């Protein structure tokens, strides 16, 4: 799987100043490090001298990475800047450096098989939904409100297809009724899907007095095919980010990050005990989707019910721009032949 876009490869807290972190994405060994300037850099993992892996014993010096084998020093752009036993560096060899951006407590890598510069930006989740919010109104997400599921056989496009799949909310997320979509539109790099729905307590919960009817809604914005952002309201306001990043041709890592709105007057970082139930609910909803995705086969063209055909057709046509020719998902066929009912 080689789609184009920004992909989450770590949380910010995973890459401390002076540390070297090993990564493996897009069938490529990588290293991430945070230099003395505080910025995170991602390079291919192998030294261009004799091929030592910089993630096994490599060290950070200032804003550079130093090879453990012979001490060759490489800058953030992958250029050799120092050879300890020679006056001049080797200017002919260069390690591939990847475009990186950091926001929303996360580190993102730009991947494009055509080696184009980034075509769009990763949005600030607090500025995305036009409600004048800022990060200070929410508790930190890491470490209490993050989840990682590694090397699952998951197609990265599943996240955005959730945005048109109205029926799954009843069967996967136990909504009491189908959601009512209030917005579904596309621009060049983003897909918006807003909806409202109702959750009613189960008979068991209602009989025990442990349930309430919750009417809520979600504003969702998918940026590329790999990043899903949402603002949800109901029992409280929360924001979430889901990232699906290909590891190789068959598997992906999936990350979930959730921010809960602060209780009045609370300026602490940690999630208070009275909100832990919301964290558990948010995590369970994410894991319910993951349980389906991890055992799902990407089907093209799919067999669709009449009511859902238009949404799936639109999202798959839009998604084609993020794939090289011939990649799964790049040639989504016309769906009409697959419609039933």
Automatic annotation (TrEMBL):
GO terms of biological process kind: cholesterol metabolic process; lipid catabolic process
Do you know which Gene3D superfamilies this protein is assigned to? Naphthalene 1,2-dioxygenase Alpha Subunit, Chain A, domain 1, Rieske [2Fe-2S] iron-sulphur domain
Q: Where is the Rieske domain?
A: 7-109
Q: Which UniProt keywords apply?
A: 2Fe-2S, Iron, Iron-sulfur, Lipid degradation, Lipid metabolism, Metal-binding, Oxidoreductase, Steroid metabolism
Segment forming the signal sequence: none
Q: Give the molecular function GO annotations.
A: 2 iron, 2 sulfur cluster binding; metal ion binding; monooxygenase activity; oxidoreductase activity, acting on paired donors, with incorporation or reduction of molecular oxygen
Tell me where on the tree of life, at the top rank, the source sits: Bacteria
Q: What is this protein called?
A: Rieske-type oxygenase
Organism, as annotated: Solihabitans fulvus
């Amino acid at each position: 799987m080689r789609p184009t876009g920004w992909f989450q490869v770590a949380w910010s807290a995973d890459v401390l100043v002076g540390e070297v972190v090993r990564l493996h994405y897009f069938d490529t060994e990588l290293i991430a490090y945070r230099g003395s300037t505080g910025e995170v850099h991602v390079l291919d993992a192998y030294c261009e001298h004799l091929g030592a892996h910089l993630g096994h014993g490599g060290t950070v010096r200032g804003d550079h990475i130093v090879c453990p084998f012979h001490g060759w020093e490489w800058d953030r752009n992958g250029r050799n800047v120092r050879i300890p036993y020679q006056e001049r560096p080797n200017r002919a060899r260069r390690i591939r450096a990847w475009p990186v951006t950091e926001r929303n407590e996360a580190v993102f890598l730009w991947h494009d098989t055509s080696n184009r510069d980034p075509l769009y930006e990763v949005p600030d989740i607090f500025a995305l939904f036009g409600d004048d919010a800022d990060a200070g109104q929410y508790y930190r997400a890491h470490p209490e409100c993050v989840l990682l599921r590694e090397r699952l056989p998951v197609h990265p496009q599943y996240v955005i297809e959730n945005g048109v799949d109205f029926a799954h909310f009843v069967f996967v997320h136990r909504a009491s009724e189908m959601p009512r979509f209030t917005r579904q539109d596309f621009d060049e790099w983003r897909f918006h899907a807003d909806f409202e729905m109702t959750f009613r307590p189960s008979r068991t919960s209602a009989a025990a007095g442990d349930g309430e009817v919750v009417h809520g809604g979600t504003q969702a914005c998918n940026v590329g095919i790999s990043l899903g952002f949402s603002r949800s309201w109901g029992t409280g306001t929360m924001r979430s980010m889901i990232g699906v990043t290909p590891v190789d041709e068959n598997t992906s890592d999936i990350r979930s990050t959730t921010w809960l709105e602060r209780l009045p007057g609370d300026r602490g970082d940690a999630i208070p005990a009275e909100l832990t139930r919301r964290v558990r609910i948010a995590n369970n909803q994410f894991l319910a989707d993951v349980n389906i995705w991890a055992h799902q086969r990407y089907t093209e063209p799919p067999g669709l019910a009449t009511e859902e055909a238009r949404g799936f057709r639109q999202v798959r046509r839009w998604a084609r721009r993020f794939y090289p020719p011939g990649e799964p998902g790049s040639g989504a066929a016309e769906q009409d032949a697959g419609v039933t009912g």
